[in-house]
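Handout, tutorial session.
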Amino acid sequence: MTAIDTATAPAPIRLLLVDDHPLVRDGLRLRLDAIAGFEVVGEAGTAAEALALTESSAPRLVLTDISMKGGSGIALTQAISRRYPTIRILVLSMHNNQEYVAQAVAAGAHGYVLKDSPATQIVEAIYTIARGGTFFDAELAEQKPAASRYGIIEKLTPREHEILRDLASGLSNKQIATLHTLSVRTVETHRMSIKRKLEIDGQAELIKFAVEFFGPR
């Protein structure tokens, strides 16, 4: 490779692997290290290790499991998205469960792929998310229409996520206002913002989407 080629070659996508099973991490590393343009900069078996490595290794994208010893991947996703908002996060899980997907998205994940997915799909997810997009496993998208809005829901603020979850639980505007120490008018404003961002017209459709997305309580 010439000096010009080196200078113009894009920087590799720096990846941090988080899973409490060493064999899973080893398998992922072997697959990803073999792909040009990827660089695995660290591995962690716990959420605490992952946070420390996120600071020291400066990954572009974090791949994390959900169920781990010493803290969940959902909590880790939330911590990373708050402390390092430019870092992209892909959840790689064995759980084919809409509630886990909803929690991951609400925490700040940019994608969710099942562990038994083909390697090509995991690679596609990494590329898509690293470039600023979102990616959700095809099996999840087939389960219900609400999955098509997973990318859009990232536009919601943390407060709007909370209110959408409250609506799924069947709470009224007054109950939501009391729960979060807000005025009813403020809750109504948040609901209008949610509908606009999700491109939903009526109140009934908003409630229907909330229940489909988070699941009834």
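The second record follows below. Compare its token runs with those of the first.
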Amino acid sequence: MSPVSEPSDEILMQGVAKGDPSAFERLVLRHQESVWRTAYRMLGCRQTAEDIAQDAFLRIYQAAHRYRPTASFRTYLYRVVVRLCLDCLRRKRPVVSDDFGQLAESGASAEEDALVRERDQAVQAALSRLPAHQRSAIVLRYYEGLSGLEIASAMETSTKAVERLLARGRATLEKRLANLMSD
């Protein structure tokens, strides 16, 4: 007996458009963690990230009847998340949270955990000081693993612009985190 393959995101989204609540539930379960992580890394606040994730899925649900799989669903989803995060950043400056280190899985000594937390806090603080579009590109590339083309689509810009955003963001982060890299 062959294993049952999971339906693609695009097929699930077509199910959502037809009113299938289980298809939407599967999409949420499949993507909720990465959506929350992306929002958290862009905004630096757990509660705001949760709100953005909920809002993103609500918007996806409400627009299901208009969805056309011209790009991957994942790219479409990140486009919604990035827009919501950028809107949030325009309204207020991000708050650097001190709980970022709790995202790391703990299996190390207390000293190692403290070092990981300190590093994660420094990285989050440096990320939060990047311009919003650079931060978006960095988070989507290095934390979510999107390609340049997927990032360009999610951010509604060109791949060349994404390359420039990534280069400037990396250069700024390298300067701001030089002390961590020398340790």
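Points raised in discussion: The chain has one domain: 9-182.
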